[in-house]
Design the sequence.
């Protein structure tokens, strides 16, 4: 494991919200589920800036991949099962089947989205590189996937990922991050 990845995993392991959520995923989430994005970069930035666990979190994004049923109803059933296992989760859980993102993305964001082959492929299209983190528990501890590496998150930097025309999403996220973690250096789109 490279040094940045190991440091990031260490910071995540020390965050109570992250560890609680990773345990929940292992117990009740659909197979192959991962905790992603804000819970992870937020945990790292909170640790690095001395803020409490959970600062800045509006939800806990959990992704999975099930191409056997692309209906909204199937995704909703999975979300309700997970919510029943953790009825008082704060912040709330947002569970999304990455196999079906291409079906709704254009209507919500105004651009096309590729049909994915795994949940982790979705990270390649997140608006910011520091956002593209996924974690779950394995037999040896926290398994972390970071297609752009961990340097940006460890260096308190937000950089755009231009693989999709996500300027509006990136700018909304950047504005929110600037108020929550003013130490973060934000590159314009």
Sequence:
């Amino acid at each position: 494991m490279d040094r940045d990845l190991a440091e990031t995993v260490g910071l995540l392991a020390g965050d109570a919200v992250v560890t609680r959520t990773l345990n929940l995923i292992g117990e009740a989430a659909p197979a192959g589920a991962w905790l992603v994005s804000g819970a992870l970069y937020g945990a790292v930035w909170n640790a690095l800036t001395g803020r409490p666990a959970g600062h800045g979190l509006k939800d806990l994004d959990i992704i999975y991949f099930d191409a056997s049923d692309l209906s909204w109803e199937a995704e909703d059933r999975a979300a309700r099962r997970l919510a029943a296992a953790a009825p008082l989760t704060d912040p709330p859980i947002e569970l999304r089947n990455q196999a079906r993102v291409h079906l709704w993305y254009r209507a919500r964001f105004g651009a096309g989205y590729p049909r994915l082959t795994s949940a982790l492929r979705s990270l390649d299209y997140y608006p910011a590189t520091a956002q593209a983190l996924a974690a779950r528990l394995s037999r040896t501890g926290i398994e972390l996937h970071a297609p752009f590496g961990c340097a940006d998150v460890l260096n308190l930097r937000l950089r755009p990922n231009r693989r999709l025309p996500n300027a509006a999403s990136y700018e909304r996220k950047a504005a929110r991050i600037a108020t929550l973690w003013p130490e973060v250096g934000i590159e314009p789109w």
